[in-house]
Amino acid sequence: MGRAFLALLRRDLALALRAGGGAGLGVVFFLAVVVITPFAIGPDLALLARIGPAILWIGALLASLIGLDRLFAADAEDGSLDVMVMADLPLELIAAAKGLAHWIATGLPLIIAAPVLSLLLNLSPASIGALTLTLLVGTPAITFLGLVGAAFAAAFRRGGLLVAVLVMPLTIPVLIFAVAATGTALGGTVAFGTPFLVLLGLSLACLVLGPVAAAAALRATRE
Fold it and tell me: How far, in Å, are 46, 47, 173, 193 from residue 43 at the CA level?
């Protein structure tokens, strides 16, 4: 079972990282959001530093959703999903492997790029450190929440909009506590640990419940 999980993880990583796989689109979108924002807001460095964490997190949220609609749909179209279902690996672990591969290919590059892009928004070193830590903890929650929308999208020919409609409302608590934790570095009244621990709890819950809900959605749409 462990070998099957790792094999599926390597397969999805290879598909995501190949030319046209969509792994680089998230970073490009993230870069576009961060670069365009200072031009839209103006040269007010204090304002950029104050709203910078929220801008970066919104960009990371939207970038993480890129490619999720094809996570199960591509395998459903070419019959690979039917082969996976007939294998010994439970559907929950199949969903978990696909979510982990998507996070490694899309979420991890965002975390690596965030400290560099934060300089464009005049963030302080403390804010950059808090932002990077919240992205590391919070982006898995977005990906594994997106598994549920991706599972439903597999039943439709064009399910990209469905993923956004289903997932965006669910990610609002993640966004709220992530920005709150990052904002403590800017002189907020709440200690960093309080919203960060809530964010960590949300991520752990999504890591457990996301694959289970996605597997249930796949079974429901395939019946």
Answer: 9, 9, 31, 32
Rounded to whole angstroms, how far apart are CA atoms 91 and 213?
A: 10
By CB neighbour count within 10 A (0-12 exposed, 13-18 middle, 19+ buried), where does 18 fall? exposed
Across 44-69, b (16+ Cβ under 10 Å) vs e yields eeeebbbbbbebbbebbbbbbbbbbb
Q: What is the pLDDT of residues 51-82, one digit of tens each?
A: 888 889 998 888 888 878 778 877 777 777 77
Direct distance between the N- and C-terminal alpha carbons of the chain, in angstroms, rounded to an integer: 25
0.85 cut: is pTM over it?
yes
Backbone angle region of 123, left / alpha / beta, with phi > 0 → left and psi within -120 to 50 → alpha? beta
Between CA 130 and CA 178 the distance in angstroms is 9
* Locus of tokens 């960093």: 192
